[in-house]
């Protein structure tokens, strides 16, 4: 045994305590702040850094490895092309993952990310994006999962669990209510506690329980006027207090605003310190300790939290080392399976899909489909070798490109369709595309919509040129199929004029093959929308977007002292489908919607209260002629309708033709309950509740009543 922490039978916390007691003050402070480990300007890469978001030095005499931190949820990214030529598997966007409603897929793809990170030498993955999609036009919605707290929490938690199973710490981020990107560093998300606990915080709470992430990352925004990275209510009261969170809180990169205040509010590490006004967690913090403003015990706690998280995932005993083996072929197939499960069939008039194989001539148009599939921009962008990189935006002083990942739908369609001829048109020459469409048996047109970190979509429309192209093609060929590659909900003005529409989101390294598989029937689509598609922006709780560039100058601007306040109390915890239910607005496509090439029936809904839990049993049958997957959703509301229906359980079930299965689902008590801010606990009002088995938020199939006893529970 070489190191004192190597005694048999010690817990992660005990090992952390041993190491902490052997560390010098210098070694402790070397872990409390660090610059971005990407060469910026004339700042070279820190000695020992692989080249990624962050590097913290090893403590060799104690057997503690360096911390090499990389982004993010969708694979191992290389921001600023910091590791030229480095390959990585690109998972589909988190929106697509959530569309699978499959926690096992979240865990499987999390394992993939963890395996690749570990083999590249990274022991911290800045993953676990779990913000609720409050703002459908949000620039990073592709990195988040859903508008619903239960779906978000379950999927994020399983993804984090998968990553950490590979001896890599995962974060969960951006804590909390980080709903928009434009002006993200000056926006205060204003939301009362009860609504926050029942929505954004519930997503993080469930994800934290399931995944036990080693670290939490607050966002750039403020919450109720306090910076997320120094928000005592969120970090000390909720996270470390109520939830007893044992890991460490790292700021976002360039999101630290003080030393003592932040340290006392619960921040443990200043990340990306070279992007801040100063390295708060070095000299200013040391001085605060010397003045007695911050105790040495608090400094020790910061380091202890890091150490125990590293030990908890086995990152010390199993140090990640670069250039380990990666089976990219197997990983690409996993990415394809994920995409196959998450593509959503939005429209399929007269069974236009699946397309017949062996056509004489097919035409594929747009979306750089000859090259690959679109990915979202920013720190999460994974760039497999062979990616097409186009100009994107500059943020944090780093160029982030518009990337098409090398999984060509055109070539996959050529392989899958057995068509005699499959032509391709870029789509920028509309006349040429229309001429080719005239002679084709079918047209497959791609509508790509790029979104990025630091930049919200402006409105819900696709580019006008894309809408025009689709309309012209649809007028020319009755079998014009639209494949959307979007970063969130969009409006579809030509919807009535096309027979079929797929939402493929950003489908990752197996996306082209997955799209082709659905189009020609090898794959039976089963994805369900994790976000509502509004019919228009007017349906939103905030029809006008908050744009700092314009908002500041408007009369009556919500800007106070350079901070822009967005009042999310308008909708409160009724985000997405709950807002549509509250306001009685029919969306374009509801939350949970998705078609299949087969049909399912629901029967025998039973509800029973068992002690403190409520269970539902339901029989689902596949009455079609081919295998498929269905995702029954269980919603609930008090018979008195004191709140709108909330998703309280869901399950993905695979069924062969004719097969039926009886499912048993437990309803999440915190969805049944409301938060009582006065008493600081969850309260279930006793009485009658309506339990609904539905195909989506607007398609109830069966319902039953249940009497639930009143109860209060908390921390
Ligand atoms: C970014 C993101 C964060 C990411 C970090 C490191 O600005 O907000 O999600 O992990 O910086 O790249």
TrEMBL record:
<dbReference type="Pfam" id="PF00933">
    <property type="entry name" value="Glyco_hydro_3"/>
</dbReference>
<feature type="domain" description="Fibronectin type III-like">
    <location>
        <begin position="630"/>
        <end position="697"/>
    </location>
</feature>
<protein>
    <submittedName>
        <fullName>Glycoside hydrolase family 3 C-terminal domain-containing protein</fullName>
    </submittedName>
</protein>
<dbReference type="GO" id="GO:0004553">
    <property type="term" value="F:hydrolase activity, hydrolyzing O-glycosyl compounds"/>
</dbReference>
<dbReference type="InterPro" id="IPR013783">
    <property type="entry name" value="Ig-like_fold"/>
</dbReference>
<dbReference type="Pfam" id="PF01915">
    <property type="entry name" value="Glyco_hydro_3_C"/>
</dbReference>
<dbReference type="InterPro" id="IPR036881">
    <property type="entry name" value="Glyco_hydro_3_C_sf"/>
</dbReference>
<dbReference type="GO" id="GO:0005975">
    <property type="term" value="P:carbohydrate metabolic process"/>
</dbReference>
<dbReference type="InterPro" id="IPR050288">
    <property type="entry name" value="Cellulose_deg_GH3"/>
</dbReference>
<dbReference type="InterPro" id="IPR017853">
    <property type="entry name" value="GH"/>
</dbReference>
<dbReference type="InterPro" id="IPR036962">
    <property type="entry name" value="Glyco_hydro_3_N_sf"/>
</dbReference>
<dbReference type="InterPro" id="IPR002772">
    <property type="entry name" value="Glyco_hydro_3_C"/>
</dbReference>
<dbReference type="Pfam" id="PF14310">
    <property type="entry name" value="Fn3-like"/>
</dbReference>
<dbReference type="InterPro" id="IPR026891">
    <property type="entry name" value="Fn3-like"/>
</dbReference>
<comment type="similarity">
    <text>Belongs to the glycosyl hydrolase 3 family.</text>
</comment>
<dbReference type="InterPro" id="IPR001764">
    <property type="entry name" value="Glyco_hydro_3_N"/>
</dbReference>
<keyword id="KW-0378">Hydrolase</keyword>
